[in-house]
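Reposting from the mailing list since nobody answered there.

I have sequence plus structure tokens for a pair of proteins and want to know whether others read the tokens the same way I do. The first protein:
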Amino acid sequence: MTTEYPVSDSHAEHKQLSSPGKRYGARLQERSLSGILQQRVIDNEKRMLEVALTHVQSDGSAIAVAGIIVAARRRFVIGTGKSFAYATLLARDLSGGLAQVYLIDETVNRSIDILSETKSTDVLIALSFRRYRRDTLELCRQFIAAGGIVVAITDESDSPITALATASICVPTDSVSSTDSPTAVAAVVHLVTTLCTASAKGAKRRLAARDDLSSQFNLYLED
């Protein structure tokens, strides 16, 4: 299952400009007034956020992905390159309400260790955006071969990872900058973690225990 959003002229340009260098040359090479550029960025981000959330709501892909995550015994999260930032956000917020959430960082949690112990009750949540990383795709293939389930958050309905995933959410990243937009991705990550936490058994108890521990360690100024 994937979320597909309307293709516009700007989206067609977005697909052609695959690298930051190409996007800079096409969009930012000529000097622009800061006020004009600021307005272009703001208008684009508002539009992308509305497009993404409208289509995720209409096709139920976020609910489907969240259901698979909650039903799993263990949840692994992978994202390489820029996607590692999204994966870190997802894993951090998921771990507040769900047990056994692991960010694959190749230091503490290594893919080779995880693949050697993968079970059919495990899910791999893969975040993959252009330019699609080979290491993410290969790990997904190996995880499936070991018996696990893959779900994906990606940017195109025909991105390489959608052919591997049991369920996918497609999030537009069209931008007027040299970098692809992270706005809708962060919003969808927030939506998925919220849906998972709301339906997970023990989430209330787990969050309360974390609050108590935070107070005991005096972690925050407000404590």
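The second protein, same order (residues first, tokens after):
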Amino acid sequence: MIPSIFARQPLALRKTAIVLIVALILMWFDSKNPEWFNPIRTTTHAAMQPIYELSLLPSYAKHWSSGSLQSKEALRRENMQLKSQLIHAQAKLQQQDYILAQNARLQGILSTTRPEQFDLNLAQVIGTDTNLLRQIVVLNKGEQDGVQVGQTVIDEDGVLGQIINVYPNTSRLLLITDEQQSVAVTVKRTGQRAIVTGEGIPTSLRLNYVFKTSDVRVGDELVSSGLGGRIPAGYRVGRIAHIEDTQADNFRSIEVTPAANFIDNAYVLVLQDKLVNKRNADISEN
């Protein structure tokens, strides 16, 4: 009866039942005599090893990708931190360079030859005039420091201009680059006299009233001549940069590069007559 019922079942079902029955029989024998199946068990485990390793590959890939992402993120953060430190270091270096440059400029100013006739009063440029068309700067020294209208101001390289207004603690300096300013000069090489005028810009001056027959050359140095008593003699004013002869008149068109620094000059020297200072000091004492 049972074999006939079993025979009527589908082939796949019959195979499954046979495998289960054989498996149960083998399990029963294994429980009774485990040593019989040790060689089979060892061989089976060895054969399954590659399958086990393949099954772990997704987990390994996940851990590797996670670690790689974390490593990249850590490197990115470290890179950003290093960039920030570099920017801060560069900013500090810029400040140190500025301080060193200012120190060098101060040493240059203070080492300027002190003429016997003048005291050199160190002043700082603290502002510019509100009229942008004028070449005027404001100094931090005034009447209380002995600054007077008409005094000449220089830097370590040459003439800057003259004091035009004085207040108790400040003063206004008209630069020789102003269009309304002029300086009597001498060509140092030949001794020829001429007039230098400003052009309203801090990088150029003009040498006027020089005849075409005059012996002037590019590179000639111009120094103050002292004529008129406005600016003392012997201070550098500029150097001839370009000469052009025009057909309109008998004079040459001559451009001059200023000797002094009119762009970023932070410290200047006010020339104060020693005799005047001594006389004022005697008056104040009396």
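Reply #1 (J.P.):
I read it the same way you do. The helical segments are 2-7, 11-32, 38-110, 274-285.
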